[in-house]
Each structure stands twice: as C-alpha cells, then as structure tokens.
Amino acid sequence: MRLDPLANENGDDSGHATSSTEETPLLDIERGIRIRRLRLLGATRSFDVDFRESNGLARSLSIIAGRTNTGKTSVLRFIEYALGAKTFPNHSEVLRQVRSVALELQTPDGLFTLERALGANTATLFPSDIDSFDAVTASTLVIDPTGHPNSVSHLLLATVGLQDVKLKESPTQDESGTDRLGFRDVMGVCLYLNERIGSQQLLHSGNFMKELKLRQVVDAIYGVHDSNQAELARRIKEAQAALDHQHRAVELLQEFVGQQQPKSLTALEVEADDLDKELREIDGELRKLGKREAAASAFASELRSRHSELAARAAKKDALVRDRLSLISRFGSLRAQYADDVRKLTLFVEAESAFDLLSVEVCPACFNPLLEAPNQDNGTCSLCHQSTLPPQLDGHEPERTASNRSDGSKQHARRELRTAKRRYKELDDYWHRLNEELPALRQAAEAAAFAEAEAGSSLDEATHEALTPFLGERNELQRRRQAALVSRSEVTNGIKLRAGLAARLTNLDRARRSLDSLRQEQRDKKERPDREAVLRQISERYAQILIEIQYPKVMQDGVLSPYLDEKLVPFVRNQHFKEASSGGQVLVSLAWMLSVFEIAYELNAGHPGVLLIDTPQKNLGGAADDAEFADIHLIERVYAHLVEWLSSAGAGAQVIVVDNTPPNNVEEHVVVRYTRNPEVEPFGLIDNETGSPATT
Fold first, then answer.
1. Model-level pTM?
2. Which 3 state secondary structure label does DSSP give 410?
3. What secondary structure does DSSP assign to 117-150, as a single string?
4. Distance (Å, whole) CA 378 – CA 391
5. Percent of the chain topping pLDDT 70
6. How does pLDDT run across 233-272, given as a tens digit for each residue?
7. How far is it, in rounded angstroms, from Cα 638 to Cα 631?
C-alpha cells in the first residue's frame, strides 16, 4: 500500500491512501490471506514459484506436479516456514543454495511480502510486492512468542479476527489455564502434509493434547469456542488501548512529517520523476559536450599521443628511482648487520692472543716465582709432571677435553669470520654500485619529467583556444547536475518520511478494523452459531463430498450416510474411518479437510481461506491395496469437485495441491512440473542442483 496521510491538506479527500500497485491486479478479500508468489533467495540467484494467473490475479487452484524428490512438498513447507513454522526443509541442496524465504501475500490491508532467513526467529514485513523491497518501509516481526503483538502470528491472525484468542487447557474446568491461539495452530486446518493424509494423524489420534487443540481451533474458526463475555471484554479493552497508542504515535509522526516535508507523497513522486528526467538530460548533454570537445581538439591528437608516451616514460623512470632508493635502504641495513657480525667474530678470535687467562707465574705449592713458564714437553706437564695425552677408553675414541673443545670452537669461529668478511665485501661492493648508479637514474627521471611537462605545455597551448569555449558550458552543466542531485536527495528523504508514515497508518487501520471486529463479535454474541448446527453442516458437506466422488459402497442399502461425531471424527460405511482400507482413508481425509474448509469459507468464518494439500493420490489408483480404490476416476472426481466449488460458492478461495501425476481434467491448473531430468527444465525447486558435475 502507498498511503498519503496528508492528502487532505492538499485538497485530496482520499483519506488514507492510494495503492502503490495500480499495475498489480488484486482481488478484494474481506479476511484471510492469499498466496501469490514464493521466492527462495540465495547468494547468487533466486528460485520462484508463481501462483498467479496470466492476468496477475492469484489462482484459485494451483497444482505443483512432477516426479518424486524434486522439491514439491518443500514448496508447501517453505510456505509454512515463512508463515511462522519452526522448521524448514534442510536438504543439502537447500542449505547450499538458499539463504532466506520470501512470500508475497494479499491481505485485507493490501499486498505484503514476508521475508525470513533460514533459522531466524524474526521476519521482515515489506508493504509491497516481492519485487519492490524497500528497507525504509519494512518492519521487523518476531516469530516467537506467537502471542507478541509484533509477531507474524498476530499479524496473520488479525486478518481473520482470531488475534488474542485464548483456549482452555482443560475445557471442562472453569479454573483451567489458557493458551493463546497461534497461527501455527490454525495451520493445522490449512496445511495437510503427506503424513496426515490417509492416516490417524489427520486428527492427531493418540496425542490427546494435539487432538484437543485441533478441535478447539476448528471451534475458534467457526466462532463456537468457549469464550465468555469477560474474555471478550478484555480483548476489546486491550485492542482499544493498542489503537489509542498507535493513534497518538501517528499524530506525532504526522506533525513531524508535515513540518519536514509538507508536500504529498504523490507530489514528491512526480517531482522525483522530473528530477530523474532532468539528470538523464544533463548526462546526455555532458556526453555530447565531450564528443564536441574531442572533435574540436582532434588536430592535436599527435601532440596528445606524444604527451601520453612521455608521461608513461616519466612514470617509469620515476619508478626506477624509487626502486633504487628502496634497494639502497634495504641493502644498507643488511650491510650494517654484516659489519657488526664481522666485528663480533674478530673480537672472539683475537681474544686468545689479547688475554692469556691461563698464564702461571707463581708456584701454586710454595708460592715462589717460577724460573720458567710451564709448558708441555713430550706430552708431560712441566709443572705437575703428569701426562697430557688423552686416555684410551676400551678402544673407543678419546673423550674431548675442554682444551680440545675450545680449540674446535675457535677454528669454527675463524671459518665463520672468513665467510662473513667475504659476504660483507660482496654486499659492500654491490651497495656502492647501487649508490654510484643512483645519480644517473635521477638525472634520467628529471629529464623525462621535464620532457613530459614540455609536451603538456605544448598540448595546452595548442588546444587552449579550441577548448576554452566549452569550459563555461561544462561548468554550467556540472552546476545544474549538482543542484539536481541535491534536490533529488531531498525528495528521496521526503518520500522515505511519507512512506514510513504510510506504513504506520496501515497498522493503524489494521488495529481499527480489529477493534471493530471484536465489537461486532460482542454485539453478535447472543446470536453466535450453535456448535451442533455448525457440526451438522460440516458433517453434511463431508457426506456430500464422499457421495459426489462416488466413494465405493457408500450408498448401499443398510449403510448409514457418512458423518462426523461430536469430536469431528469421520465415520464411513458405519465404521470409524481407521477401519477403512488405506485408499479409503485417503478419500475420507480429503473429504474431511474439504468440508471443514468449504463450510468455513462459505460462512465467512475465521479460516484464512487457503488450503494446502500434499499428495492427494496417495494409496489410490495404481498404488491402491484394494481394488475398490484402484479407479483413477476417484481422484478425477475429487479434482472436479474442487474446480466446481472454487468457481461457485468458493470463488475467491485458494487451494494449492502437490501431486505427482495430476489427472488430465486439471492440466490447465498446473503451475509448474518438475522433471528430475537435467535435459528438461525445470529440474526441481532448486533447479541448478541437478547432480551433474557442473553443479556439484
């Protein structure tokens, strides 16, 4: 919706606003939602399923066909996830390709898109179609808790007047605790996956709490749930308080927007279009001016070419100087390091001759001066007369003495000193050569820069007279362009302010309608439908559908008409439906879900108006284990009933079916057929995951 809250200030009595999707055909719906498009958003591309007719309206019946393991059921599960479910299809190809899910919905408030990232506990609501995301008007909704007033559940329940409904945990006890109704609960009568069809899971048999919750949800949808006047009064009070709060917030925002941007949204959009047109014209004139400048200065092409060559040469010479300076700096540091190493090694080698730490001048026994310095004569010490030769140890190599180790260390140090001196000399020679060549390089760089400057001056002198007339024109165009950009920025900010106010007004309208619905419910409380009467209608429609599709032997003599008991449990051929064959249970499941859906829609009850069915041919036709249900015409008659009802009493409702091989009588309602064949598109929902080497 594109709302214009201050339209009255500009002479427009349209009130709240005009539609932002004049080009998007929409059906008027009083309550509920209609699914228009599903889009899986990935890092590199998106994957779409379109539920619209060629004229843009939402289809009444959409069939997703194709082979198994192509993602058909995942379409339904992604829809469920976008609407607040806790889980999503986590197949490997999904995790590789998909980052978030976007669902385009039509509601009584207009067109919206819900986007939810995989694994996120929040969703983003855009008041636009799926192709027109605008972060300015977007709002964030939480997934849990579902009872939060700013949750996806509350938003969706508000479309059918079931927000803030509380269900008793123990309906037979007056003091029972309550649970707030969530849209996940309502999805129990909107979405029927494969495991619920033809199974005891249809009514969650065996799970008392889920079975009870399903019955309570059906009662709430039909307005026959256990809700006293006090509870209704509480809801009205809370809704009034919420409306008053939103009204005050909108008034303040209207005052602020009116001061900042007095123009209407329509006027701003027209001005934005005009400025965009002006910018395109200025850019076109600048391009033409550039061509004229090039033509006027074409005679100087040779000078321009020479200037470019000299500029490139000067840049190259300058780069050589910078590289040479860098080399000199790096090798200078390395040269200093080698010089330091040479000094250290020289000191170590010369230490023995400079300092004789082991000289003995006094006899250590009598402390008299020695007549001659101690020495080694033929391997015998002259001082202690002991042998200085290393002892032999059992034929092994003699142990190295401290003296030997010292001699070896000094020899190693001398070798290192010779090597360090040689390397230092080589490095020093190279460093000096680099320094000697530097002046010549600098001179060449200066000469190249001077030549480039002279060529530039010559080019400027040659083109000055030719280009001077264009300078004023270019400056004027640039001035106009800058002014237009500034004005466009101001208009954009104004549009954002107006769009944000429009979103607030949409929420205000939704709160007002919710309050009106609750007050109407309070007025009609005494005339509320009787549960038995409602159950009777559903039961009769259930029987009618089974008879219409020619359920085997349902019309035999002595067989009671199919019916639902007070707990909504279906019976057929005088038996609980669990006694039927697998094919019979599928038909009973289809009749049950269709009867609940159809009567609710015809009575304008609280059903969202959307029905999602997975694999209606389960255990029928060639897969039936009972010859009675092997007739392909059974499923044809189910589809025929759907088509007829959707074109008459169910006009405006929506049914989406996943079916491997739908019969020929509904071929026109197939929106996509997945092939699981890489050669024939589309392969599947994630159509680039074909299993071929190119996609793995």
1. 0.63
2. helix
3. ETT-SEEEEESS-TT---TTT-EEEESSSTTSTT
4. 15
5. 83
6. 667 777 788 888 888 888 888 888 877 778 887 888 888 8
7. 12
